[in-house]
Amino acid sequence: MTIASKASLEYAKELDQKDSIAQYRDQFHIPKDDNGNDWIYMCGNSLGLQPKTTKKYIQQELDDWANYGVEGHFEAKNPWMPYHEFLTDTMAKVVGAKPIEVVIMNTLTTNLHLLMVSFYQPNKTKYKIVIESDAFPSDRYAVESQLRFHGFDPKEGLIEWKPRSGEELLRLEDLETILDQQGDEIALLLIGGVNYYTGQYLDLKKIADLGHAKNCMVGIDLAHGVGNIQPELHDSGVDFAAWCTYKYLNSGPGSLGGLFVHEKHAYNKDLKRFAGWWSHNKNTRFNMRQEFDVMPGAEGYQLSNPPILSMAAIKASLDIFNEVGMDALRKKSKALTAYFEFLINEIDTDRIRIITPTNPEERGCQLSVQVKNADKSLHQQLTDHHVITDWREPDVIRCAPTPLYNSFEDVYRMTEILKTLV
Ligand SMILES: *Cc1c(COP(=O)(O)O)cnc(C)c1O
């Protein structure tokens, strides 16, 4: 097979035929144009597409609510009282955790704050927080507000781990330098496991080891990692992590988030935290007025009884992840993104540069493609062709071919359209 023929529709279709999980595309609603042709949807890093089963899962809970009212907490087909537990095993597998370390609750930024109540406990000398300079804005705001809440000036307390000048990607050596120089003053590292902008997947275990060597707590934002890479959270040793479920986990706009608290903290009742009745021992929760008895593990971070309709959508999605398995997903993902990368590099122009790492172990499915001298009209033109990507000023399009519902044909067609626009 020559290089030239790899860059052809026939070859892309051949790859789809050989793809052992290609059939899952049919399990999703793919948006269509007026002629009934599928959009090329590369925005699973922002909002994942809807599984066709989601409606059925939500309908089940609506029916049980209609038929049982409050009794649905026990009588529903999937009783609401323990509903979050139905999500735990698969959620744990997807992030490489033990079930006791994982729970679905609240939303991402809320969970980051709740986790920082426990894992950011600064004192006068050890109070600084390290984030990536290109952290997602919400994470930055959350961290700055935590610093202020504890009486510190973010200008003093916030340390940015920056790419070197002229580079986009982070180097672990530079984090090491920050820790060597200021480690005694640093209380917490809060790092995006997969950077939302560059798509760089960082070595979580190395980050945990570096932070722990200086007695810092280490937290990971997995918004762009969950359902995308295999973060092996337990083995990495990070103290906590949080993520949302509406991106690669396809659980619907604004759906609940998930969090991880490492087993080493599971039974520590002295850890400060905010509490509610759902953090209390489930065996005595309804005796009410009992002295607070926190549940071990991640479940002890819950506050409220959770929204079942949102959890039903998460269950619909996680059941698919459970069936496919992260190994198969990641395998296809690497092949799909490598093919995408190959095709982009074939475009004969010096305007295009991929800023995502070329090493498949240092990225998930996303490629961040810089187009020199482009402006947002390029993104608009792609959208006009029903190629859905994510624009980031000044000149980067973020494209996420997801292994569950994107095809090799998708990435081929996408690059053909991009080629005509540049
Ligand atoms: C998507 C995303 C968020 C969004 O936070 P919400 O609380 O779910 O609105 C936060 N941080 C990162 C890194 C993200 O990618």
CATH-assigned fold name of the largest domain: Aspartate Aminotransferase, domain 2
Strand content bin: 5-15%
Gross geometry: globular
Task: Identify the strand order in the major beta sheet.
Answer: 2-8-7-6-5-3-4
Number of domains: 2
Indicate the CATH architecture of the largest domain: 3-Layer(aba) Sandwich
Number of strands: 13
Q: Mean of residue pLDDT?
A: 96
The stretches of 5 or more residues where confidence is low (pLDDT under 50) are none
Judged by helices, strands and strand pairing, the structural class is alpha/beta
| Major sheet size, sense and barrel closure | 7 strands, mixed
If helices are DSSP runs of H or I spanning 4 or more residues, what is the number of helices?
A: 15
CATH class of the largest domain: Alpha Beta
Helical proportion, percent range: 25-40%
- Which small molecules are bound? pyridoxal-5'-phosphate
> Between the first and last Cα atoms, what is the distance in angstroms?
28 Å
Roughly how many Å is the radius of gyration?
22 Å
The CATH homologous superfamily of the largest domain is named Type I PLP-dependent aspartate aminotransferase-like (Major domain)
H/E series, N to C?
HHEHHHEHEHHEHEHEHEEHHEEHEEEH
Family: Belongs to the kynureninase family.
GO molecular function: kynureninase activity; pyridoxal phosphate binding
Cofactor: pyridoxal 5'-phosphate
EC number: 3.7.1.3
